[in-house]
Amino acid sequence: MTQQLQQELEDLKKKLLTMASYAETALNTAMRALVERDDELAYRVANEDDLLDDLEIEVDEQSINLLSKAPLATDLRFITVAMKISHDLERVGDEATAISRRVLELNGEPQLKPYLDLPRMADMVLQMLNAALDAFVSRNPTQAAHVIPRDKQVDALNKQLTRELSSFIAENPANISRCLALMMISKRLERIGDHATNIAEEVVYLYEGRDIRHLGKDLSALTQSKA
Amino acid sequence: MTQQLQQELEDLKKKLLTMASYAETALNTAMRALVERDDELAYRVANEDDLLDDLEIEVDEQSINLLSKAPLATDLRFITVAMKISHDLERVGDEATAISRRVLELNGEPQLKPYLDLPRMADMVLQMLNAALDAFVSRNPTQAAHVIPRDKQVDALNKQLTRELSSFIAENPANISRCLALMMISKRLERIGDHATNIAEEVVYLYEGRDIRHLGKDLSALTQSKA
Known about the structure:
Two copies of one chain form a homodimer.
Chain A: H1 3-35, H2 39-67, H3 73-107, H4 117-137, H5 141-147, H6 150-171, H7 176-208, H8 217-224
């Protein structure tokens, strides 16, 4: 590998880390907008999302350009994985923006109850995202593999919240619009967990050459015992 | 381009069309399971989804292999677009499987009302998917561009259905679980519309070299006037 190519691959990696930091900020801002009932913050999320959209296109262009210069299979794999990670991070921005739209709806009505579970869920998916990106940077497929089973906890929390909110509606149908908005936020957080899981699977593939997507329960059984 | 490379790119294209046909079958099967209240059909959807998962991995492996042989920027673009289309088709399979799980829940309870809007929505997104794939095969970016604004209609139908189902819950809270299941199906169909839109955008990028993702309203205004 030439020194220049090496440098360009490093730049690509840095761009992904920049994207990850925007994605994290977008989600944190959306959740603060919810908890602090602050419309100003909710509007700000769209800006971070725009930056992510632009960066995704940059990463794609840079990757296509690099693909023509990279002779080794490992480099090709790195570049295609970078494109996928970039896409997942851009989607995290989309989810954060969708959350902020629901927050604006919710802020227009009296608060149903203190939001405790949603911020906890947001913390869980942010930790997954961080761990997956950290595993990418430190070339640590084992760390990445440990992220994957944590998605089950996020899924379980989403199901529990959906059940609770359903019973809130049953108790008082006037709660419908607020409960549906909260359910949608929970669902969006659950999808951010999916994106973190995708990234973790990509990192395992990148450094171990094993494609573990779609393995489902087998893998989570494997890693849960070690978790 | 060598004749062998040309042949391998054709094979890749064929594999995508196979995936498209499985994705279509998966969605059609899930919708028939809903309308005909047939659990057997709902269980069958997971099989098509498994085939899609396997094909996505095959397409990725074949693509990485081809990337090292393809010297031209247009070939590189074709291959990376193929990987993205394959990912979107695999996700359509996931959505169909998620729909079939909701269908099983719904089939266990009395029918709330005849399902008319959901099959109509499924037809809309299947037509979008077909048109996008057709544009890919016939190298027709204009046809692909016309798919994109149709997503707005699907979004509008999803919003309308969600509103209707919300008022059903308000009228009778005992309808909650069935209404939520139907809302989730509507949301999944809306996401299949998003995947068809992604594919259409990729096809425009492939044949025109313009990246039109994230252009949003500007583009839909542009193409709607011609539609």
